[in-house]
Amino acid sequence: ETHDYIQWLFPLREESNAVPGSPHIGSDETVRILRDDEDVQENIVNALVRMERFYRDNDFWLSQNDHNHLRITRILKSVALLSSKENARDFYDFIMRRVEAAEPVTEESLEYWKRSIS
Asked: Which of 15, 47, 52, 71 could bond 9 through an S-S bridge, CB–CB 3.0 to 4.6 Å?
């Protein structure tokens, strides 16, 4: 029932338009601190596991222009920024396997996701 969790689990450099006041990363120094913190890294991996389970166990997001597509973009960008490109790529590959089975996603969303891990 809480829809702003994604901004808390996966913060970005820019402020959220959807959830004003949610956390965002203000500096390169903060990014470095978060990347070097073992607890933060473990929490990111745990959050990714949880989100994989969510996207594996639900099919409602496998439709065009679903709001979860924006969440997936956020997850990919945040993980690439705060964890590793490898973790972001693994999540991207997982999502793409789900999408390819149903082919429900717009080319625009697919392009956002691809650019998020580049």
From this structure: 47
Q: What are the backbone dihedrals phi and psi of residue 20, each rounded to the nearest 5 degrees, phi first?
A: -60, 140
d(C-alpha 115, C-alpha 95), whole Å: 14
Task: Give pTM, 2 decimals.
Answer: 0.85
In single-letter form, the type of residue at position 11 comes to P
Q: Which letter does DSSP use for residue 13 in this model?
A: S
Q: At what angle do helices 68-82 and 107-116 cross, to 10 degrees?
A: 10
For residue 96, the one-letter residue type is: M
* Burial of 90 per CB tally in 10 Å (0-12, 13-18, 19+): middle
Q: How do residues 29-38 score in pLDDT, each as one tens digit?
A: 999 999 999 9
Query: Tens digits of per-residue pLDDT, 70-92?
Result: 999 999 999 999 999 999 999 99
User: Which CA distances in Å does 14 have to 24, 55, 80, 95?
Assistant: 6, 25, 14, 24
H or E segment at 7? helix 5-9
